[in-house]
Design goal:
With about 180 residues, this protein is mainly beta. Helix content is about 10%, strand content about 35%. It has a seven-stranded mixed beta barrel. A three-stranded antiparallel β-sheet has the order 4-3-12, with no helix packed on it. It has a two-stranded antiparallel ribbon with strand order 9-10. A hairpin with an 8-residue loop joins strand 1 and strand 2. The relative contact order is 0.25. This is MOSC domain-containing protein.
Length: about 180
């Protein structure tokens, strides 16, 4: 079964800020991420991770969030728009959090990213809207922590990505490997 969705919005920001700036298009570059974004690079660019070990590979080149999350948050009294949580790509129609590690997403005509794991929400989220951090975390029936703030990916093949582009999911061979925070 092929899973399909679409791109709702794209964003980037050359500065390390909480949110990003919506764009008409972004350019993904193989092995590096979103051209012109503060997280662009082969090695880790997230400031706290750079302080720990600047030689780590950058598994967080592209941040994707499902637009359905914004509707869920609106039902809880929050107002969140695409790019405000720092994502590069806002999707619709894909259960991003249910994908396995290694799933590949074809974005538009050329770009391909590989999902590396979950975004671990940080305390800056509450500075954006009080109580939002708690709303982005949940518990499974088994009591396991659920992180809802999107997935991270690396760029396997570059290309332009625009709102309205199709997304096609390719699942990896082998057993299902659940997403872990990266």
């Amino acid at each position: 079964m092929t899973q399909r969705g679409s791109v709702v919005a794209v964003a980037r920001d050359g500065e390390h800020r909480f949110g990003k700036v919506p764009q008409d298009a972004i350019q993904l570059v193989e092995g590096l991420g979103v051209e012109g974004d503060a997280h662009f690079g082969r090695t880790v660019q997230h400031r706290s991770r750079v302080r720990r070990d600047p030689t780590q590979p950058n598994l967080r080149q592209v941040h994707l969030i499902h637009a359905e999350l914004f509707a869920e948050l609106a039902g809880r009294g929050f107002s969140v728009e695409p790019a405000q949580l720092g994502e590069n790509v806002t999707t619709r129609g894909l259960a991003l959090l249910d994908l396995p590690t290694g799933a590949r997403l074809r974005l538009g005509a050329e770009a391909v990213v590989e999902v590396t794991g979950l975004r671990n929400p940080c305390a800056q989220i509450d500075a954006f809207q009080d109580g939002l951090m708690k709303a982005l975390l949940g518990r499974s029936p088994e009591g396991e922590l659920i992180r809802k703030s999107g997935v991270m990916a690396v760029v396997l093949r570059g290309g332009a990505v625009r709102p309205g582009d199709a997304i096609v999911v390719e699942r990896p061979e082998g057993p299902f490997a659940p997403l872990q925070p990266v």
